[in-house]
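#lab-general

N.A. 3:47 PM
ok so I finally got the sequence cleaned up, no stray characters, all 583 residues accounted for. can someone with queue access submit it? mine expired

B.Y. 3:52 PM
send it over

N.A. 3:53 PM
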Amino acid sequence: MTINQLEWQQLLPNTAACTGLFEREYRREPLNIAITQPRLQKSLHTFCHQHVTASPFMLIKAVDSRAYLSLIHDTVKNIQPVRSEVFGSRYEINNAVISRVDAQSKSDNFAATDDCLYEEWLETEQLFGCLRKHNDSYTLEPGLIHKANGGVLILSVRTLLTQPHLWFRLKQAVISKRFQWFSVDDSRPLPLSIPSMPLELKVILVGDRYGLGELQELEPELIEQVVYTEFETDLVVNQDEDIVTWCEYLNSVAFHYQLPSIDASAYPSLINIAVRKSGDQEKLPLCPQLLSHILSDATPFAMPAITAQSLEQAEQEKLWRESYLSEMVLDDIDLGQVRIETEGFVIGQINGLSVLEYPGHPRAMGEPSRISCVVHLGDGEITDVERKSELGGNLHAKGIMIMQAFIAAELASDQQFPFSGSIVFEQSYGEVDGDSASLAGLCALMSALSQQPINQQIAVTGSVDQFGNVQTIGGINEKIEGFFDVCNSRELTGSQGVILPLTNIRHLCLKNEVVEAVKAGRFHLWAIDHAQDALPLLTGLPYVDENKPSIIGSIQERITQVAGNDRNRLPWALRWLNWFNRG
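B.Y. 4:20 PM
back already:
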């Protein structure tokens, strides 16, 4: 049995040992991904310096926003080989006749103006240029591929998938190394004949995994030959130097976005906020958008540097702006519109924990869910009411089936299991999915079978496998805080708390109210690694014990009683034989 009652120090990242690192003076330098993205840096270097016969395309899995495209652009500019020749052409129009010659200088109208360009969204004319007519005169305007000719063009995969004709024309031009002019309006040909021009271009495509997957389905052979890499979303913290690296990166982000300097007192708060975003005490996010937004929110309160106090003020104001919906949910529970028990003991009822994500709302919210289970004589079938009513998702159904398999193995018998039951999420009116409630459902079922009541002051979260091992779940901080808020609004009793998977300890980064309540002994967290560890906490009885009452012993006793009654019950046609047994 492994039951770990957590100390308050385990509920947050340990930053006390890093005080000396925070006191260092970090220089505000241009944002450079080399220290945090070695794979990306090396891949870009390989792509920019590879032989001309290699694929002219590169794929980067990253957010296809301007912040990421700009960061990749700056990196490419620093590692590109120096160009000595002029790429492009010069077009001349005389008497409605267009002629082309190779560019001799960068001042020629279709000579490349830059060796690396990027754009988040563009239309056909922006990418390929166009022929315009004004009165009786014609003009040719270059597009992005002409301006970056001889260099690198960085585009969003989403843009090309939304406008497939852009992709096919771009691919044809890049692979053939020649740009053929065409009419933007497919129903009308070009009014003039325009000579094609040579094109020497490399293209970096940036997109998320789904966008890159769609492109792979569209161009499977092409994708096999490209250089591929990923923008790493987090920095894994294994040693002190990793903290130093992250602090340097953070200061570079502040410098890049022209934000105030960062005071030493701000780093612990920044790490706490960052861990809430990454969901792991040993990972710090590297997203420039996220980090710049965190610092930007604190800037109005910075005097003049960003401090722990300014970050706290920014977080509190942001929470207040976004808290209307969560307050309405909590009010429904306080008013009894949504029934959640936080005191007493009830057979077959338990507080599970859920995370709610409402469309358009920026913050996920934790909320306790009342899970109930009833059993009766039957054929051993456990009915998942959510699944039967088509409100349960596939992952939820999988969790319930795994739970049933564990119970069948624990109560292995030569006889058929004589009980049936049903499990339901009470007052749930939307789809329920995920397997994080399978531990709670298992405990409710064991309570109903053993007729041992569950302490309603304790909530449970975690998934289980067929052997009863408790497994990691997501949204652990929101789930704990959701139950804490309900208990706190009714006044903490000192016996309330949450049972969570042992493997989720590294994901904890709880708000100050919860940490202070745990520190004062008014709220508790227990981390377990097996289902057997949860039931003693919930019922006060051991899971199994041959010498005194236990959960398994109570269930086996009920099974024995039912089996004995069944042996004494004769078929209807032979019930007259019982007359001889009287007296």
